[in-house]
Design brief:
It contains eleven helices and two strands, in the order ααααββααααααα. It is mostly helical. It has one domain. The chain has a two-stranded antiparallel ribbon with strand order 1-2. The termini are far apart.
Amino acid sequence: MNYSGILTQLIVGLSRTMILFIVSSGMSLILGVLRIPNVAHGSFYMIGAFLSYTIASFLGDVSYSFWFGIALAPIIVGLLGFFLERVFFSYLYEREHLMLLLLTFGLASVLGDLVKLIWGAEYRSMTTPVFLQGSSEFFGLPVPNYNLFLLFIGPAIAILLWFIFNKTKFGKIARAAAADKEMVSAVGVNVNLIFSLTFVLGCILAGLGGALVAPIVNISLGMDHSLIMEVFLIVIIGGLGNIWGAFLGSLIFGITQSFGILIWPQFGIIFPYLAVVIVLLIRPRGLLSSTW
């Protein structure tokens, strides 16, 4: 453990944090507004990664293929989320949460099989775009340019979400509907439309996380399973519906996981979960209060 090792792990942990935040912010919105424990959220993340790979592969080795991938993949995932919300979720909002939970379990299985049917069970890999290849010097150490790109995009998404849900009419109505949807509906607001748009936004964020992680991981079946538990824990310790809480929870999870691997490689995976236990013992209701 030296200066270079610590800084390298810090950059790796922060890069992981940005992906976790983007996906968990979508989960936080869906759980905060719609009260849906969406187990299928990880499946949207996985589909986003596969779609980004497919779009980039179809366009070939051109400078804009990466941008088309991260732009189109989340949109397609959002359209899929809109279809599923209208066909399935919209009829179950008044039912018990257990029914919604079982529905998301079923959808996760179906979407996993759908991915296997379309893309197969083989691992896929996506090349980092040329303009983000290589590294830049950061405090005397070379840092991959793609990691620096992720360090920029994460806070940008956080600020954008804060603006949407605190400064726009849609965001204010969504927050009101989360608190008392009957009253919001009584004044003439189409609550079902607000719920649909919120669910679509959450799916878009999951798809965006998958598209952004595609160049730095193996794209494969099961990548949703390894993420969904982490995302649930981040939302719980951050505070329901709190964007900055999701950011802080992701930061804790990403950094402790990265340094856990540096300190004790064989059991590095336990460090973020240990951090979650400590946080919940000190702050049972989460690091930041629920905004809705």
